[in-house]
Design goal:
Arc Repressor Mutant, subunit A, Jelly Rolls
Protein backbone atom coordinates (compact mmCIF):
# COMPACT_ATOMS: atom_id res chain seq x y z
CA UNK A 1 0.00 0.00 0.00
CA UNK A 2 1.31 3.48 -0.90
CA UNK A 3 0.70 6.73 0.96
CA UNK A 4 -1.80 7.73 -1.73
CA UNK A 5 -3.87 4.65 -0.98
CA UNK A 6 -4.77 6.27 2.33
CA UNK A 7 -6.08 9.46 0.68
CA UNK A 8 -9.87 9.69 0.62
CA UNK A 9 -11.61 10.07 -2.73
CA UNK A 10 -14.53 12.51 -2.97
CA UNK A 11 -16.62 11.71 -6.04
CA UNK A 12 -19.16 14.57 -5.68
CA UNK A 13 -22.24 12.43 -6.44
CA UNK A 14 -24.73 13.88 -8.91
CA UNK A 15 -22.26 16.25 -10.53
CA UNK A 16 -21.55 14.33 -13.73
CA UNK A 17 -24.23 16.16 -15.71
CA UNK A 18 -22.66 19.59 -15.10
CA UNK A 19 -19.38 20.96 -16.46
CA UNK A 20 -18.85 22.99 -13.30
CA UNK A 21 -20.46 23.82 -9.99
CA UNK A 22 -19.68 25.89 -6.91
CA UNK A 23 -19.88 25.57 -3.14
CA UNK A 24 -19.76 28.25 -0.45
CA UNK A 25 -19.19 27.60 3.24
CA UNK A 26 -20.30 29.25 6.47
CA UNK A 27 -17.76 31.99 7.35
CA UNK A 28 -17.97 31.08 11.04
CA UNK A 29 -17.37 27.37 10.47
CA UNK A 30 -13.73 26.41 10.88
CA UNK A 31 -12.04 23.08 10.49
CA UNK A 32 -10.49 20.97 7.77
CA UNK A 33 -11.61 18.26 5.37
CA UNK A 34 -8.55 16.05 5.67
CA UNK A 35 -6.35 15.01 2.77
CA UNK A 36 -8.57 13.96 -0.15
CA UNK A 37 -8.73 14.01 -3.94
CA UNK A 38 -11.31 13.96 -6.73
CA UNK A 39 -11.37 13.81 -10.50
CA UNK A 40 -12.51 17.42 -10.94
CA UNK A 41 -10.22 20.43 -10.96
CA UNK A 42 -10.86 22.78 -8.03
CA UNK A 43 -10.33 26.48 -7.42
CA UNK A 44 -10.04 27.40 -3.73
CA UNK A 45 -10.74 31.05 -2.85
CA UNK A 46 -11.86 33.10 0.16
CA UNK A 47 -13.99 36.19 -0.40
CA UNK A 48 -13.08 37.30 3.14
CA UNK A 49 -10.67 36.06 5.79
CA UNK A 50 -8.11 33.45 4.82
CA UNK A 51 -7.57 29.72 4.44
CA UNK A 52 -4.53 27.47 4.42
CA UNK A 53 -4.39 25.01 1.54
CA UNK A 54 -2.12 21.98 1.26
CA UNK A 55 -1.60 20.33 -2.12
CA UNK A 56 1.17 18.52 -3.92
CA UNK A 57 3.44 18.52 -0.87
CA UNK A 58 3.25 22.30 -0.42
CA UNK A 59 1.28 24.73 1.73
CA UNK A 60 -0.17 28.16 0.96
CA UNK A 61 -1.98 30.82 2.97
CA UNK A 62 -4.73 32.26 0.76
CA UNK A 63 -6.03 35.78 1.45
CA UNK A 64 -8.86 37.10 -0.79
CA UNK A 65 -6.35 38.41 -3.34
CA UNK A 66 -5.14 34.90 -4.16
CA UNK A 67 -6.72 31.58 -5.09
CA UNK A 68 -5.31 28.11 -5.61
CA UNK A 69 -6.03 25.94 -8.65
CA UNK A 70 -5.78 22.24 -7.75
CA UNK A 71 -5.73 19.84 -10.73
CA UNK A 72 -7.99 16.81 -10.56
CA UNK A 73 -6.46 13.82 -8.81
CA UNK A 74 -4.02 15.84 -6.68
CA UNK A 75 -4.35 15.11 -2.93
CA UNK A 76 -5.18 18.30 -1.04
CA UNK A 77 -6.71 19.75 2.10
CA UNK A 78 -8.11 23.15 3.08
CA UNK A 79 -7.96 24.48 6.64
CA UNK A 80 -10.33 27.34 7.42
CA UNK A 81 -9.47 30.18 9.77
CA UNK A 82 -12.81 31.69 10.87
CA UNK A 83 -14.23 34.00 9.86
CA UNK A 84 -13.39 32.88 6.32
CA UNK A 85 -15.86 33.06 3.44
CA UNK A 86 -14.62 30.03 1.49
CA UNK A 87 -15.76 29.51 -2.10
CA UNK A 88 -14.85 26.49 -4.21
CA UNK A 89 -15.27 26.07 -7.96
CA UNK A 90 -15.18 22.54 -9.39
CA UNK A 91 -14.63 21.97 -13.12
CA UNK A 92 -14.43 18.73 -15.05
CA UNK A 93 -11.15 18.46 -17.01
CA UNK A 94 -12.96 18.18 -20.36
CA UNK A 95 -14.52 21.61 -19.74
CA UNK A 96 -11.32 23.32 -18.55
CA UNK A 97 -8.79 24.66 -21.09
CA UNK A 98 -6.23 25.61 -18.44
CA UNK A 99 -2.95 23.71 -19.01
CA UNK A 100 -1.83 23.51 -15.38
CA UNK A 101 -0.88 20.05 -14.15
CA UNK A 102 0.33 21.11 -10.71
CA UNK A 103 -1.21 23.32 -8.00
CA UNK A 104 -1.04 26.92 -9.21
CA UNK A 105 -1.62 30.18 -7.34
CA UNK A 106 -3.57 32.89 -9.17
CA UNK A 107 -4.06 36.58 -8.41
CA UNK A 108 -7.71 37.48 -7.87
CA UNK A 109 -8.41 40.81 -9.57
CA UNK A 110 -11.52 42.87 -8.93
CA UNK A 111 -13.06 41.50 -12.13
CA UNK A 112 -12.25 37.88 -11.29
CA UNK A 113 -13.69 38.36 -7.81
CA UNK A 114 -17.01 39.62 -9.20
CA UNK A 115 -17.13 36.81 -11.76
CA UNK A 116 -16.53 34.17 -9.10
CA UNK A 117 -19.25 35.64 -6.90
CA UNK A 118 -21.64 35.78 -9.87
CA UNK A 119 -20.87 32.18 -10.79
CA UNK A 120 -21.44 31.20 -7.18
CA UNK A 121 -24.92 32.69 -7.37
CA UNK A 122 -25.76 30.31 -10.23
CA UNK A 123 -24.32 27.22 -8.57
CA UNK A 124 -23.16 26.21 -12.04
CA UNK A 125 -26.71 25.97 -13.38
CA UNK A 126 -28.98 28.17 -15.49
CA UNK A 127 -28.52 30.18 -18.70
CA UNK A 128 -25.77 32.49 -17.41
CA UNK A 129 -23.61 29.78 -15.82
CA UNK A 130 -21.80 28.66 -19.00
CA UNK A 131 -20.81 32.14 -20.25
CA UNK A 132 -19.80 33.20 -16.74
CA UNK A 133 -17.64 30.09 -16.38
CA UNK A 134 -15.99 30.86 -19.72
CA UNK A 135 -15.11 34.35 -18.49
CA UNK A 136 -13.75 32.98 -15.21
CA UNK A 137 -11.50 30.50 -17.02
CA UNK A 138 -10.34 33.24 -19.40
CA UNK A 139 -9.37 35.46 -16.47
CA UNK A 140 -7.64 32.61 -14.67
CA UNK A 141 -5.48 31.83 -17.71
CA UNK A 142 -3.62 35.12 -17.34
CA UNK A 143 -3.63 35.33 -13.56
CA UNK A 144 -0.99 32.81 -12.47
CA UNK A 145 1.60 34.20 -10.06
CA UNK A 146 5.03 32.95 -9.04
CA UNK A 147 4.27 31.53 -5.60
CA UNK A 148 5.66 28.09 -4.92
CA UNK A 149 4.30 28.07 -1.39
CA UNK A 150 6.06 26.40 1.51
CA UNK A 151 7.43 22.93 0.80
CA UNK A 152 6.44 20.32 3.38
CA UNK A 153 9.18 17.90 4.49
CA UNK A 154 8.52 14.21 3.86
CA UNK A 155 10.20 13.00 7.04
CA UNK A 156 7.29 12.47 9.49
CA UNK A 157 9.20 14.03 12.39
CA UNK A 158 10.09 17.16 10.45
CA UNK A 159 6.55 17.21 9.03
CA UNK A 160 5.13 17.25 12.57
CA UNK A 161 7.21 20.32 13.40
CA UNK A 162 6.25 21.99 10.11
CA UNK A 163 2.55 21.40 10.70
CA UNK A 164 2.77 23.00 14.13
CA UNK A 165 4.62 26.03 12.77
CA UNK A 166 2.13 26.51 9.94
CA UNK A 167 -0.70 26.53 12.48
CA UNK A 168 1.17 28.93 14.80
CA UNK A 169 3.93 30.83 12.96
CA UNK A 170 4.86 32.75 16.12
CA UNK A 171 5.84 29.56 17.96
CA UNK A 172 9.48 30.22 18.83
CA UNK A 173 10.33 26.78 20.20
CA UNK A 174 14.02 26.04 19.44
CA UNK A 175 14.66 23.12 17.12
CA UNK A 176 16.63 21.42 19.91
CA UNK A 177 13.46 21.34 22.02
CA UNK A 178 11.46 19.91 19.12
CA UNK A 179 14.11 17.24 18.69
CA UNK A 180 13.93 16.35 22.38
CA UNK A 181 10.14 16.03 22.25
CA UNK A 182 10.37 13.80 19.19
CA UNK A 183 13.27 11.80 20.65
CA UNK A 184 15.51 12.44 17.68
CA UNK A 185 18.86 14.17 17.34
CA UNK A 186 18.77 17.86 16.52
CA UNK A 187 21.20 17.35 13.63
CA UNK A 188 18.94 14.63 12.21
CA UNK A 189 15.98 16.98 12.30
CA UNK A 190 18.00 19.74 10.63
CA UNK A 191 19.05 17.37 7.85
CA UNK A 192 15.43 16.30 7.36
CA UNK A 193 14.43 19.90 6.58
CA UNK A 194 17.30 20.42 4.15
CA UNK A 195 16.75 17.08 2.42
CA UNK A 196 12.97 17.40 2.26
CA UNK A 197 12.57 21.09 1.43
CA UNK A 198 15.88 22.38 0.08
CA UNK A 199 15.90 24.94 2.90
CA UNK A 200 17.61 25.06 6.27
CA UNK A 201 15.39 25.04 9.35
CA UNK A 202 15.85 28.80 9.79
CA UNK A 203 15.07 29.51 6.12
CA UNK A 204 11.99 27.27 6.16
CA UNK A 205 10.60 28.89 9.30
CA UNK A 206 11.15 32.36 7.86
CA UNK A 207 9.31 31.44 4.65
CA UNK A 208 6.37 29.99 6.59
CA UNK A 209 6.15 33.13 8.73
CA UNK A 210 6.30 35.49 5.77
CA UNK A 211 3.57 33.61 3.96
CA UNK A 212 1.32 33.81 7.02
CA UNK A 213 1.99 37.56 7.14
CA UNK A 214 0.36 38.11 3.73
CA UNK A 215 -3.15 37.35 4.97
CA UNK A 216 -2.69 39.52 8.06
CA UNK A 217 -1.43 42.46 6.02
CA UNK A 218 -4.37 42.15 3.66
CA UNK A 219 -6.73 42.35 6.64
CA UNK A 220 -5.27 45.79 7.36
CA UNK A 221 -3.42 44.98 10.57
CA UNK A 222 -0.54 47.35 11.44
CA UNK A 223 2.86 46.12 10.29
CA UNK A 224 4.08 46.09 13.90
CA UNK A 225 1.21 43.80 14.89
CA UNK A 226 1.77 41.51 11.91
CA UNK A 227 5.47 41.19 12.70
CA UNK A 228 4.73 40.11 16.26
CA UNK A 229 1.93 37.72 15.29
CA UNK A 230 4.15 35.79 12.89
CA UNK A 231 7.07 35.55 15.30
CA UNK A 232 9.43 38.45 14.51
CA UNK A 233 11.00 40.19 17.49
CA UNK A 234 11.45 43.46 15.58
CA UNK A 235 9.67 45.30 12.79
CA UNK A 236 13.02 45.97 11.15
CA UNK A 237 13.85 42.27 10.99
CA UNK A 238 10.40 41.51 9.60
CA UNK A 239 10.68 44.23 6.97
CA UNK A 240 14.13 43.08 5.86
CA UNK A 241 13.01 39.46 5.50
CA UNK A 242 9.82 40.51 3.70
CA UNK A 243 11.72 42.62 1.15
CA UNK A 244 14.17 39.80 0.53
CA UNK A 245 11.32 37.38 -0.16
CA UNK A 246 8.81 39.56 -2.02
CA UNK A 247 10.90 42.43 -3.36
CA UNK A 248 8.90 45.14 -1.61
CA UNK A 249 8.06 46.40 1.88
CA UNK A 250 5.11 45.01 3.87
CA UNK A 251 3.31 48.36 3.64
CA UNK A 252 3.82 48.62 -0.12
CA UNK A 253 2.64 45.04 -0.65
CA UNK A 254 -0.59 45.79 1.19
CA UNK A 255 -1.18 48.90 -0.92
Amino acid sequence: MTALDDVATDDHPGSAERDAWTCAFDPDEGGAWGLHRHDQHQLVWTAAGSARAVAGGRSWVLPPSRALFVPGGVPHDVVLRPPAALHCLYVWPHACPLPWTRPTVVAVSGLLRELLLALGQTGGEGPVAAPTLALVLHELAGAAVADDGVVLPEDPRAAAVATRLLADPADDTPLADWAARLRVGESTLRRAFVTGTGLTWTEWRSRARLQAALALLERGLPVTSVAARVGYASVHGFGTAFRRRYGTSPGAWRS
